[in-house]
Amino acid sequence: PFPPLPPHGAAPRPRPLSAPFPPPAGAARRHVMAGAGPGIAEILMNRPHARNSLGKVFVNELFSALEQLRFDEKVRVVVFKSEVKGIFCAGADLKERAQMDDAEVGHFVKRLRNLMDEIAALPVPTIAAIDGYALGGGLEMALACDLRVAASSAKMGLIETTRGLLPGAGGTQRLPRCVGVGLAKELIFTGRQIDGQEAFSMGLVNHAVPQNEEGDAAYQRALTLAKEILPQVSILFVLSMQRNHYFQINWYLKMILNLDRQEGMAAFKEKRPPRFIGK
User: GO CC annotations (predicted)?
Assistant: First the structure.
């Protein structure tokens, strides 16, 4: 069902960096944009020979990229993007998993779940740009993001039941929050794949856009959305949305002394756009 694979080991596109240290040299790396998008960072996935499937090394690289972003105060929005045309992430690397014993499988699935939780816990808005297949763990990665943008031709599904498995990295919890319990059960029980337009109609993605010749229409829309979010976002505001009611009250009390809150009030009083700094 997948498009043809790119050449093995295809090099990622070179991109200018505004960060003081280089990204990891492997299949997953982070990139902080300069120029028109200061404050926007990207997680770039480029494991073409395995369709960005989640193997041990790839997962370690994703953890590393997330760790760098977590402590970068200049980053205000993160976009997850594939550099493999026609693929977002094909899910777990089942060829690699076939070589694991039962104990190793259990440990690795737990690590995948931790990875998705780390994505969900990033203290800034996250956007998944789904320009191709997002299956199994790939869809779970997108579900861990705050927002999702898909090409109308993209294919998504928690297909684990078709392999005698169950979603193990948070999909059973996050999918119902997007589409409702009944529809989530149907998609999981059947392992059905849906396209971007269907995903939009059921609330799984925020936007569905026609694919372009370059194959990056979802990324372009995600970038536009990120730039729209950028002037508004405050780190403490995002954190407050990730907690329950009790934590939200506590975070709001802390926000009273937040510089961004004070700037927002001053900007309103002075009838000008706010200039948030994420503090």
Answer: mitochondrion
Whether residue 62 is found in the same domain as residue 175: yes
15 belongs to a structural domain: no
Domain range for 254 is: 235-270
CA distance 63 to 114: 9
pLDDT digits (tens, 9 = 90+) for 182-211: 999 999 999 999 999 999 999 999 999 999
Task: Report pLDDT for 255.
Answer: 54
User: How much of the chain is helix, strand and coil, in % rounded to 5?
Assistant: 45, 15, 40
Strand order in the sheet with 133-135: 87-89, 133-135, 155-157, 194-195
**96-129 in b/e burial notation, b at 16+ Cβ within 10 A?**
bbeeeeeeeeeebbeebbebbeebeebebbbbbb
Q: What would the pLDDT profile of 89-143 be if each residue is shown by its tens digit? A: 998 888 888 888 888 888 888 999 999 999 998 888 999 999 999 999 999 999 9
User: What pTM value is reported for the model?
Assistant: 0.78
Distances (CA, A) of 71 to 44, 66, 202: 18, 9, 35
In CATH, what number is assigned to the domain containing residue 122? 3.90.226.10
Instruction: Say if residue 113 is in the same domain as residue 160.
Output: yes
Residue 14 lies in a domain: no
pLDDT in tens, 246-259: 554 555 555 556 67
Sequence-distant (≥ 6) Cβ neighbours of residue 70 within 8 angstroms = 122, 123
Residues carrying an active site annotation: 92, 137, 140, 160
In a domain, 22, yes or no: no
- Cβ atoms of 12 and 44 within 8 Å: the answer is yes
